[in-house]
Specification:
Radius of gyration of chain B: 29 Å
Distance between the termini of chain C: 33 Å
Number of domains of chain C: 1
Strand order of the largest sheet of chain B: 2-1-3-4
Oligomer: heterotrimer
Radius of gyration of chain C: 18 Å
Number of strands of chain C: 10
Distance between the termini of chain B: 25 Å
Number of helices of chain C: 8
Largest sheet of chain B: 4 strands, mixed
CATH class of chain C: Alpha Beta
CATH superfamily of chain C: P-loop containing nucleotide triphosphate hydrolases
CATH architecture of chain C: 3-Layer(aba) Sandwich
Shape of chain B: elongated
Order of helices and strands of chain C: EEEHEEHEHHHEHEEEHH
CATH topology of chain C: Rossmann fold
Strand content of chain C: 25-35%
Chains: A alpha/beta (368), B alpha/beta (373), C alpha/beta (242)
Shape of chain C: globular
Amino acid sequence: MKRFIGFVQKEFYHIFRDRRSLFILFGMPLAQIMLFGFAITNEINNVDIAILDRSQDASTKEIISKISASEYFSILQYIKEEAEIEDAFKKGKVKAVLYFEKDFSKKLIKENTAKVQIVTDATDPNVANTISNYINSILSHYQEEQNRAITQDYQIIPQSRMVYNAELKSVYMFVPGVMTVILMLVSAMMTSISITREKELGTMEILLVSPLNPVQVIIGKVFPYIFLSLINAAAIVILSIFVFHVPVKGSLFLLGLESVLFIVTSLALGILISTISATQQTAMMISLMGLMLPVILLSGFIFPISSMPVPLQVISNIVPAKWFIIIVKGIMLKGVGIHIVWKETLVLLGMTLLFIGLSVKKYKIRLE
Amino acid sequence: MRVILYIINKEFRQIFRNKGMLPIIFILPLLQLVILSNAATYEINNISFGYIDNDHTHTSRALIDKFRASTFFDVSQVFPHPKESDLAMLQGKVDVVLTIPEHFERDLWKDKNIDLGVTINAIDGAAAGVENVYITQIIKTFNKNLAVDLVQLSNNKAQPVKIEGIPLFWYNKTLNYKTFMVPGILVLLVTMITLFLSGMNIVREKEMGTLEQINVTPIKKHHFIIGKLFPFWVIGMGLLTIGLVLAKLIFAVPMLGSLALMYFYTSIYILVILGMGLFISNYTDTQQQAMFIAWFFVVIFILMSGLFTPIESMPKWAQFLTEFNPIKYFVEIMRMVMLKGSGLYDILPQLIKTTLYAVVMNAMAVWSYKKVS
Amino acid sequence: MKEDTVIQVEGLTKVFGDFTAVNKISFHVKKGEIFGFLGANGAGKTTAMKMLIGISAPSSGSAHVAGFDVYSQTENIKKSIGYMSQKFALYDDLTVKENIRFFGGIYGLSKDKISQKSSQLIEELGLEKVAKSLVGSLPLGWKQKIAFSVSLLHDPKIVFLDEPTGGVDPITRRQFWEMIYKAANNGTTIFVTTHYMDEAEYCDRVSIMVDGNIEALDTPKNLKTHFGSDSMNDVFLKLARS
C-alpha cells in the first residue's frame, strides 16, 4: 500500500511541475465555459431581412412596422425587383425576404385573403424555419387584431406551461452540456498520453519491473487527475450558478458525487486509449480526432438525440457524455434525486469498470 | 531550393510509414463524416407525448387523434393524474403533456372557447418553442374544422380575414439539414486534421532531438518550414476531395457553384490552419502542451463557427471574436458556393480576410521559429 | 585569428536568469586537433558547445568558429561544421540510406555526391545488410557510428561531437575513436565533449570545465604531470575537490 501511495505521489509531482500544462488544464476549460455560456445560443435576434413590397399600402406598411418593431428582425434593405432577391441572398447578409403581392389591402377587403411570400435562405434550415415561424406568428397576430370585432369560430385556447425553464433560456440547455463536453474531453486527453509517455521516454520498464500490480498502476495513474478534474468541475459549476444563473434545484452533494463518477469514467477512457496506442502522437490523435466530434454531436448537447435516425440513437448510448448530460440536467434543472437518475448512474459506473478492466487487460499483455 | 524537396520527401515517407496513424488521418475523419452528418439536426419529430383526458368524449378523443396523426409527436402515454405525468416528465419519459379538463366538450359548445392545459419540458428552450408552435398549429386546424358547419350557416357580412404567409425555402426546399451540415462537418474534420498534425509535428522533432540537428545545418528557415508544411497541405486537400465526393454520392449534397473556386479557397484556408499549428509548435516544448493548446482553440473555433448555433444570435463582442475564427469563413464560403452557387465576386470579402489571415499567421510562425535561441 | 586556429573563444559567457552556466571561458583550437571538452554533468559543456555551433546566442564574450563570428555569422558557421548531438539525432523511422540522403540533401550535396558518399559510408561501416532497415531498429553502437559519418558527409572543417559515446560498450567506444582518428588525420578538427575521463587520453589537448569555468587546459600528458596523477580520472578528481 505504501508503494502505491508513493507511486501516486510521483504522478502528482509530474503533473504539478509542468506549469504550462497546468495553466492550460485549469485556465482553458474555464475560459471556454465563459465564452460559450455567453456566446452559444439558439435565440434569434436582429436577423437581417429585406422587404419587397408590391403594394405599399396601409396594410403592408402596418405589417412591416410590426416586423420592424420586433426584436427578432432588422430590416436591412428594401428591394424593388424579384431578381434582386437572389442577389441579396448570394451576398450572404440577408436571411429572408418578405414579398408582399400587389393590391394587398384591396384583396383583403374584396377577397378576404391576401398573400405574403416568406422567402428564406434555407442553407441554414434551422434559422430559416425559425424565421418562418416567427414571421407567421407576427402575421397571425395582425390577423387576429383585424378580426377582433368579428365573432369567431370555436376556440380551443392552449395554455402552455413551460416547465424547468420558464423563460426558455438557452443557457439552461447549453451550460450543462458544455460543462459535460469539456470535462469529458479534457479528462480523456489528460490520461490518454500518461502511459504512452512512459513508453516513449523509456521509463515504462521501470514501471513494469516494479512490484506494483497492473490494477495499482492503472488506478495510480488515474488518481491525481481526478483531483485536478474535480477542481475544474467545481469551478465550472460555480461559474454556471453565479455568472449564468443556472439553478441547482437538486442536491449539490449528489451533483458532486455524480461529477466524480463521470470524471473517473472519462479518465478511464483516456487510460484505455493510452494502452492501445503505440506513440504519444497516436494517443493524442485518437483522443482529439476520435472523441471531439462524436462527443459534441452524439451527446445530446446541442442536437436532440430523439431526432436522430435510430442507428445513431443506439450509438449515442456508448458516449458517456450522453448519460451524464441527462444526470446534470436532471439534478440542476429538474431537481431530481438519485431515485430518478439511478439508471444513468449505473450505466456510467458500468462503463468505468469496463474501461478500467480493458486497460488492465491490455497493460497485462504488455507484461507478457 | 532543392532542399525543400528533400524535406518534403522525408515527411511523406514518415507519414506513410506510420501505420498506426494512417487510419486516424484518413479513415477516421471520413467515417465520422458519413456517420455523424446524420446526427446533426434540429428537426423536431417523435417528441414523446402524453395526455390526461378528464373528459372522455368524442371531441376530446378527436383532438388527441390529431396529435397522434402528426409526425412531430409520438403519443405514447396516457396518465390518470398530474402526479404521474409530472413524475414521467422528471424521469425524462415524456416531454409534452396535454391536459384536457372535465366537461371539455360541453363547455366548448356552450362558451365557444375553452382553455387546454399544455405542459412542455423547456430545458431545450428552442425546441420547446418550436413544439409550442406545432401544438398551436394543430389546435388551430382543429378549431377551424369544428366551426366549418356553423360559419356556412351564418350570413355574417363581416367575414374574418386571412393573411396567408407562404414560406419558401430557397436552396434547400425540403429543409434538409444534411445539405447544411455535411459541408460544415467536412470543414471541421479537415481543419482538425491539419491543425493537429502540423501543431504536433515540429514539437515532436524538438522532443526527439532531431530539430536541434536540423538547426545546426545551414538550411534556411523558410525552406524548412515550407518543406514541413507542404505534405500536410496535400493531405488536407486530399481529405477535402474525398469528402466532397462522399458528400455528393452519399448525401446528394448539391454543388451549384464552381468546384475550382472551392479548391482555390481551400488551398488558402489550409495555409491559415497550418500557420497556426506551426505557431503553436514554436511556443511549446512537449507534444502534450501542443495538443492542449491546439485543443483549446479547436473547441472554440468549432462551437463558434456558426455551424451549430447562428453567429447572428451571439452578442456583439462574440460576433467580433468570430472574425478571428477561420472556420467561420470556411463554413460561410462552403454554403455560399456549394449551396447558392455564389461566385468569386460574392465571396470576395471572406476570401480577402482569409488570405490576410494566412499571410499574417504564417509570417508570425516563420518569425517565431528560432534557429538560434 | 592565427592561420591554423579554427576555433577562437574569448570570455564567452552564457547566463540564464541569475544562473551563470558558462563563465568567461577562453581557449582556442588548432586545425586538425582532437580537442576534448571535459567536465562533469552539468558543468556547462553542452551549453558552451551550443554557442559554438550557432544555436544559442552568447550573453557576452566573443567566439569565432571557422573564421566566422558566432553572433552574426551563424549560418556560415553551420555550412562549415558537422554536428552529432547527444541523442545521435537520426530519424528512427527512416532507413540508413534515407537518413544519409536526407542530410546530404540538406547540406546541398549533389545527387551523385550523395550516392557516392552513401555507398562509401555503408561499405566502410559494413552496413550492407541493414542499409534499408529503419535506424530505430539498429543497436545503439551502429546508430552512433552512422550519426558520426553523417556529420562528415559534407566534408566539414570542424566536427562537434556532444557526448558521442554515451551508453555504448568499451569495444564499440574503441572503434568509434578509431573513426575519430581517421577523420582527424584527414585534416578535420574534432571538438568532442565527454564526461568519460579515460577518453581524455585520446585527445591532443583537453580542457576541464567545473561549474561553468575552465579550470584546466593542456595536453593530457602535461595535466597528469602537473597534478601528479597517472590517469585523467585522477586529474579530474583532484580538480573537483580543490
